[in-house]
Amino acid sequence: MSDLTLNDVHKYYGDVHAVRGVSLDVAEGAFTVLVGPSGCGKSTLLRMIAGLEEIDSGDIVIGGQVVNRLRPKDRNIAMVFQNYALYPYLTIFDNIAFGLRAHRVREPEVARRVRETAAMLGIADLLERHPRQLSGGQRQRVAIGRAIVREAGLFLFDEPLSNLDAQLRDEMRAELKRLHQDIGKTMIYVTHDQIEAMTLADRIVLLNEGRIEQEGAPLDLFERPRTRFVAGFLGSPQMNFIEATAMTDGAGTGFRIDAQNTLSLEHVPDGITDGQAVVLGIRPEHFSRDDSRPHCQPLDVVIDLVQPTGTRTHVQFPVGGRQVTAELGAHDVEPPGTRVRLMVDMRRLVLIDPATDRVIGKEGERGS
Ligand SMILES: Nc1ncnc2c1ncn2[C@@H]1O[C@H](COP(=O)(O)OP(=O)(O)O)[C@@H](O)[C@H]1O
Ligand SMILES: [Mg+2]
Fold this sequence. Notes:
Blueprint: E1 2-13, E2 16-27, E3 31-35, H1 42-50, E4 57-62, E5 65-66, E6 77-80, H2 92-102, H3 107-120, H4 136-148, E7 154-158, H5 166-183, E8 186-191, H6 194-200, E9 203-208, E10 211-216, H7 218-223, H8 228-233, E11 240-247, E12 254-256, E13 262-264, E14 277-282, E15 287-288, E16 296-302, E17 305-308, E18 312-319, E19 322-329, E20 339-345, E21 350-353, E22 358-359
Helix pairs in contact: 2-3, 2-4
């Protein structure tokens, strides 16, 4: 069953067409992440679902009911923002209880639900304190507690972890995912961070300039991007994009990058013609030093930057007039200036038409 449906939703701020015809079905109990670069319309979309922002056209349907004209408090929604404001003069208990009391929930029930929520979030021993006596991560937990204590049907999160430092963000991310597994409620989570999107989502909705660029399961988007934008947005370090010319007959078949570099491919996909310009999308992790693997083709390059991360080492080198990054084994390190042979996994190559920025080939045909 679909818990939330958006039908061709539009939003204008004066001349700015912030949301440009978004249609979306969110399944009950799913963790959906709206992700995309800053300004692509994520917060606007979330605020329209919450009823904090009016929609200019289209429909928003929650639990089978069109809610376009319903006030926020009548939508059975709880929301957590990036800049959560706790009431400084209230205890943590009273902060979490606030929404329940506003809805005239009886005091024994308030106490039961606040304690249960606090236990779930690991803040049960902080209930008598005030916000200023809490760390940033603890405060963020209280903000989340304040939302989930309401037992709403739909939970909305707008970049709730952005103000936390990196380690805390990782911890809270795992806790949120666990929380979702435990309570199984429908959650819609907005972030600009592709790692958060990949790790949290059952379903990713990737937005670009007010439109859905592609949606699907995280690995589906990662392995079968339909556009250059999707291919480039997901993955760190980013996918490399190298301009090349297709060769489909005669002496050799494959892709010529420049005078020194050619990648051979026995069967160039249908629809690509000899001499056609293509962009080769190669993820950093699809380079290796191992020339015994099948389906790999060599590139001879001169390393000009080496960045160890501990688990893996990132090396950079110019190919076809642009900087390319490869992710190699931690100890596959050669000093800058060294000429090395790197193998490219040709099965993982993403071919992009530079005229349209769309991935070439039928959906699901390439990648793995
Ligand atoms: N209240 C507003 N008034 C005018 N423009 C706005 C307002 N809110 C958002 N915008 C514009 O709408 C677009 C989408 O904004 P937003 O939804 O906040 O993006 P995101 O959350 O993805 O960063 C941006 O171009 C932004 O400048
Ligand atoms: Mg935003």
